[in-house]
Design brief:
This protein has 438 residues and is of the alpha+beta class. The protein folds into two domains: 256 residues, Transposase Inhibitor Protein From Tn5, Chain A, domain 1 (Alpha-Beta Complex), CATH 3.90.350; 60 residues, no CATH class. It is 36% helix and 20% strand. Strands 1, 2, 3, 4, 5, 6, 9, 10, 11 and 12 form a ten-stranded mixed sheet that branches. Strand 3 and strand 4 form a beta hairpin. Helix 5 packs across helix 6, helix 11 packs across helix 13 and helix 13 crosses helix 14. It is globular.
């Protein structure tokens, strides 16, 4: 029997939730690679994950590469299991699910990399906002953890966007349909940026609302008039033309609201209109919400469109502000966890490697919330090591990841090899600290 990685008991229960997604031969590889991605402190390539899991001397590296390029498993299936796990562990029972959707470009060079091309990259440094690489549309569940004041976005589903394939809005609609199936009877509230609108949203599942930014030149229409029995033929699907978003903002009446957005108290003027945006949502009624800062001289600073017809406009603004957490999640996954460093080229390997990385990111947070937060004060430990950070009051993802690494390394040292009857266990955390920080 092939050896398997030694995992802490608290961490082992999380990959075990995904056992039905893999065969008996690929499941240990999934456990090893997700663990290795979290435990590795240097390069998070495929072989780097193997080293991080401590299996580089027990397995051939082809086994890890084969897991991505040829093994039989589905990222969507894994993502749906993760979505159910997050909703059961971190979300209020029966509460609506807020979902943030966005895309991000992972830079890749080489002519043979599947799906890589030059495209707009908003996170690129400098004035040139184009990069060559792979673009993934990611769906993330917004959760509110009791030990953090801000919302967090936990990625569950990711799909590669290619030039000749479905558009980003179509991919987002497919991922939302999968999420709705995973959520059961819970309502789904989607928040997205201005790129996510269009005809693919005409057929969203029941119980799903969509909120995104609307272009200034979008044309709005009145609701379709009711039939009076006098006109023959097909009933009208839209009313009279109202005008463009920018034109209508000039003659709006405003209400003043004080809201807490992006960790700041803001006073805003808000106006709304129920109408049709026929170009993107067809005959489905929508609300357009104009937002302007109290001291702004512009006609409006932000315009949103939503299919949620009942939630107050100020609550919709707060919900939309949670979308910013997805940018923080991209940053942490890339720079702290090393997601995107794997250099795969073939089609299946490219399509699977980054989704596995973002799944590992979510598992780290779920592990900390379920098993570590109540027993370990990482903030006090961090301030003990770095007393100059006097204002630190909440754990960061870096703290969660460092604690998980120490736990994984301690379990590795404490594991009892079959060849040794009773080895001396290493209980001093100084060794595991040195190993983790080296």
């Amino acid at each position: 029997m092939s050896p398997e990685p030694a995992l802490p008991a608290t961490w082992q229960v999380l990959p075990a939730e995904f056992r039905r997604c893999f065969s008996s031969s690929t499941f240990p590889v999934f456990c090893a690679l997700t663990t290795g991605l979290a435990a590795c402190t240097r390069f998070r390539t495929v072989t780097g994950m193997l080293i991080g899991a401590g299996m580089n001397l027990a397995w051939r590296h082809e086994r890890a590469h084969r897991f991505f390029s040829r093994a039989v498993w589905c990222t969507d299936h894994v993502g749906m299991v993760l979505a159910r796990l997050i909703l059961a562990a971190l979300a209020e029972t029966g509460a609506p699910v807020v979902v943030a959707i966005d895309d991000n470009v992972t830079r890749r060079s080489g002519k043979k990399v599947h799906g890589a091309f030059w495209q707009y990259n908003g996170s690129a440094t400098g004035t040139t906002k184009t990069s060559r690489g792979n673009c993934f549309v990611t769906l993330r569940i917004v959760v509110h953890l009791p030990f953090l004041p801000r919302a967090m976005c936990l990625p569950v589903l990711a799909r590669l966007y290619v030039k000749d394939g479905p558009g980003k809005a179509a991919i987002a609609a497919e991922l939302t349909t999968l999420q709705a199936a995973a959520a059961g009877d819970r309502p789904i509230h989607v928040v997205a940026d201005a790129a996510y609108h269009g005809k693919p949203l005409h057929t969203l599942p029941e119980g799903v609302s969509w909120t995104c930014r609307i272009p200034r030149n979008a044309v709005l229409y009145n609701l379709a008039p009711e039939r009076d029995g006098k006109r023959r033929g097909r009933p009208r699907t839209k009313g009279e033309r109202l005008g463009q978003v920018a034109e209508l903002a000039a003659c709006r009446s405003w209400k003043i609201h004080t809201l807490r957005l992006y960790d700041k108290q803001r006073t805003l003027r808000i106006s709304e209109l129920r109408c049709l945006w026929y170009g993107s949502f067809g005959a489905r009624p929508v609300r357009v919400i104009w937002v302007r800062a109290i001291d702004s001289e512009k006609a409006f600073d932000l315009a949103l469109v939503t299919t949620d017809l009942h939630t107050p406009a100020e609550q919709l603004m707060i919900r939309y502000s949670w979308r910013w957490s997805i940018e923080q999640a991209f940053l942490e996954a890339r720079h702290l966890l090393g997601v995107g460093q794997a250099r795969n080229r073939t089609e299946k390997a490219v399509e699977r490697t980054l989704p596995l990385g973002v799944i590992a990111y979510s598992l780290v947070i779920v592990w900390y919330a379920r098993h570590a937060h109540a027993t370990t004060d990482v903030v006090a430990e961090h301030r003990r090591r770095s007393p100059w950070y006097r204002t630190k009051t909440q754990p960061s993802f870096d703290d969660m990841l460092a604690l998980l690494r120490r736990t994984i390394i301690a379990a590795r040292f404490s594991a009892t090899p079959p060849s040794q009857a009773d080895p001396t266990k290493i209980e001093d955390e100084a060794l595991t600290w040195a190993y983790a920080m080296g």
